[in-house]
Amino acid sequence: MSTIYYLPTHEYIKVDGENGYIGISEYAAKQLGAVTYVDMPEEGDELTAGEEFGAVESRKAASDLFAPVSGEVLEVNEELVDNPKLINNAPLEAWIIKVKINDPGELKALMDQEAYDHFCEIEH
Hints:
This protein is an alpha+beta fold. The protein contains four helices and nine strands; from the N terminus they run βββαβββββααβα. The strands form two sheets. It has a six-stranded antiparallel β-sheet. A three-stranded antiparallel β-sheet has the order 4-6-7. The longest helix is centred in the C-terminal third of the chain and has 11 residues, at about 115-124. About 35% of the residues are buried.
C-alpha cells in the first residue's frame, strides 16, 4: 500500500518503497480545468525539494510544479505528452514523474491526506 503526501502548492508524491510518483492533486486538477500541456524534466535530472521542476498548463492558467522531495528523475509519464487530459480524468493515477527519493526524512515536512483535505477546505 502506497502512502500519499502533499505540498501546499497541490503536488502529491505517492511513495512506493524508495521511489515516488509525483503529480498534481484532484483539487489542483479541478482548479486548473482541462489540462492542455505538461512540461516535464528529463530522465536523470536531479530535483531539489521545494524547487520548480516543470509546469502544467490549461486553457485557464499555467501552474509551476514544485518537487515534494529531492531525488533523481527515473521516468517521465510519456502518456501525458499526447494526452495531458489524463490528469483531469484521474490525477492520482496520471503521475507526471517517477523519482528515486534521496532522503525519506523530507516526507515528514509534507501533509498527509487528512491535513491536506483540511488545508483545501481552508483555502477554498
